[in-house]
Each structure stands twice: as C-alpha cells, then as structure tokens.
Design a protein that fits this description.
seven-stranded mixed sheet; two-stranded antiparallel ribbon; 9 strands; 177 residues; alpha+beta; single chain
Amino acid sequence: MHFAIRKEIEANLPFQPGGSAPSSTIAICSQPDAEAIADGETERFEWMDLRDVAGAMDRLIDAAEIVLEVAEATLVLVYPFETAVVRELRAENGTAFTRGELMKRIDETYRKVYALDEESQSSQTHDETADREAMLNRPLSEGEFGIWGHEYRDLGVGSIDVHEVSNRVWLDPVMES
C-alpha cells in the first residue's frame, strides 16, 4: 500500500474535527457478522468494524452507492492519534466516491499509520489487556504518531462527516470503539 500521509496539528485544519458542524454526513451501516448473529443480534449495525474489513465489506450496506460527488477529497484521522493524520484521496472513477471506496481508504490509512507507528518505536506498546492491569485502552505509544486508546482491531466507523471549506472537501470519520 503506497500512498502519502502527513501529520497535521488539528489547530491548523480549516475545521474542528468532531466539533465543527459538517456540511453533510455519510451514514455507515452494516449487517451483523456470524459472531453477532450467534449472540442474537439480527438488526443492522450503525457502524462498520475495521477488524476484518474484507468480511465487513461484504456486510456494508449500500457499498456501491455513490455518496460523494467530487473527484478529490482530504481524509483527516484524529482518533486515536496525538496529531491528526491527513491523506489526499482521488476517486477511483475520477468523478465520485462510493461508500465502499471511502471505507477501504479509511481502513488502509489506519492500517498504514498503525504499522508506521509500530516501526518507529524503540519498544513495542503492550497489546495484551492482561499486561495492562485491567486497563482496556492501550497506553500512549512512543511511536511517530503517538497512538493512544484502542488498538486498530477495536475500531469501527460510525459515519463520515463531510466538511466543505475553502473550496475543498474534508472527510472526518466518526470513530466507534
């Protein structure tokens, strides 16, 4: 997976992630997986799990629907990083993004950031809750991105806030954990 990302101080962004009112919001809903069904869940989820994106994409509702009619957008990830991560996106078809395409881009960006953070650490951040003395969240990493809170496998996307500022489209995923 080769693409450029950059770190950005949130105060330098043209909107406040999670705080500014979005221009619009893209809903993310998925069907329950086999484990959830076995637990009695039958209703759709108002989010998509990033733990197993290949399987989750099969359960993503309206994955092929065009949800953003622009050729380019800027993805901004803030949780769970000390500094925002920014990636420029171009629509695969050159004109618009589908819900599934946006979810794939969000997933691959998170995966890359977590991998780069792990590679940049001098020691591994403990991943096992047993080693954390009952703390559910991971401690702050000493890696390049300063990841805190949940592990990648615990993240999900509830929706994507769209901010139209300064003739640009900014995408701010609303994360679930």
